[in-house]
């Protein structure tokens, strides 16, 4: 699944975008993770469960979403290779999840449990800095998404998504992209033509 060469390991490269690691440090970090494979349509998180794992995607694409009282799906985000995903409220507070996360493709993932992440960050300050910075980036991305929903036209939101993540349009059905943008499939078809 992953390159055994420590220097080329994708997780190490990802972490080292923020903090440098020695081989020994990376071995220690990696010892806190497990690997898993999920098939297309399998859940990573189901509404109502207490989330125990944070996932890092090595291969595949997933969506996080909730269903309203009428059963309509509202997509919160997509995640692809080298992105982190979980229900962070449930993961941090250890309360029942309010969202679902499932695989849009067959996926290969690394995951870290809440306990292992807590242990790792308390024993290795570099990883505490890494996750603090990743959390800041996540808050910035969320703020940008909210601002875009509030101030941009549908066409502007569509163009921005296409510009930022063109590969998404090759991997995700149009009806899901429409849900993410908060528009109907018909409106998306007009923008797409």
TrEMBL record:
Residues 39-116 form the Cyclic nucleotide-binding domain. It holds the Pfam family cNMP_binding. Gene3D superfamilies: Jelly Rolls (2.60.120.10). This is Crp/Fnr family transcriptional regulator.
